[in-house]
From TrEMBL:
Matches recorded under InterPro entries: Glutathione-S-Trfase_C-like, Glutathione-S-Trfase_C_sf, Glutathione_S-Trfase, Glutathione_S-Trfase_N, GST_Omega-like_C, GST_Omega/GSH, Thioredoxin-like_sf
Protein source organism: Thermomonospora echinospora
PROSITE patterns in alphabetical order: GST_CTER (PS50405)
Residues covered by the GST C-terminal domain: 149-273
Alphabetized GO MF terms: glutathione transferase activity
Designated name of the protein: Putative glutathione S-transferase
Keyword Transferase in annotation: yes
Keywords: Transferase
Residues marked Lowers pKa of active site Cys (site): Y230, Y273
Amino acid sequence: MDMLNPVAGRFVRQANRFTEKITADGAEGLPAEPGRYRLFVSYACPWAHRTLIVRHLLGLQDVIDVAVVDPVRDEAGWRIPGGDPVTGATYLSELYLATDPSFEGRYTVPCIWDTVTRRLVTNDFPAITTMMETEFTAFHRAGAPDLYPAELRPEIDEINALVYDTVNNGVYKAGFAREQGPYEEAFDQLFATLDTLEDRLSRQRYLVGGQLTEADIRLYPTLVRFDSVYHGHFKCNLRRLVDYPHLWAYTRDLYSRPAFHETTDFDHIKRHYYMTHPHINPSRIVPKGPLLDWTAPHGRDRLD
Ligand SMILES: N[C@@H](CCC(=O)N[C@@H](CS)C(=O)NCC(=O)O)C(=O)O
């Protein structure tokens, strides 16, 4: 099973199937409780990556458990190495089918399993980070940042929509296009947005409001993967990240923080993409490069 779902050569992402909510008091959906939920992720997956960054920044590591799948996905989908000690599952598909035996979509990460009702609560990736930010506040570490401040939400949501469509999903639309036209359309939109972001980040340290927010957390997973996988594997090669002085320094600034670099695994990222899409890379050879100096001084403090 792969991520191809072509409509006239265009890649279309499937709708999220499980969208139950977890709320602070359980008034809607299930209640936020420590130790109850298990988050399934791949270090390779950009959508899962954001959930790991937020969990780390908010100090929720002991509140929401994590299980990491093997980066190389085969015909049976994501595999949990050694089997999952909590759910007993070897493949993520078992959790999807235990929740809904008639499920016929792709078995995707990130998703959250409820250990009490023993079912998947959500694979709705945009909702997972905001849920951690707004419904798990009782369990945030002391001094945790507010990543989704009420007064900045309209601006964060606006930039997230552009970044999702043309950057986060834009690289997939380019990489998974089946025809020249849709590829070029996604390619042009991607680099137009990167130009806009380069300009914006030449003047300010963060995307919105002079502080780290959900907007930065959503952009980072795509930028950090850019030169290692999207530039080559997904043919997003007008420019590299390192060719954008401000975007490159911005990404290094974020990478310098533990929540970002401890959740960034280039080995998983490269092996996943190059070994899991045989229609794009039939040899499954994983490139050795590029050589990137992630710890070079970023100098972004001057913009504070
Ligand atoms: N839930 C979203 C986004 C999450 C997503 O695409 N995850 C990918 C990894 S980056 C995945 O798990 N793919 C599994 C598959 O295609 O079989 C979707 O269904 O498109």
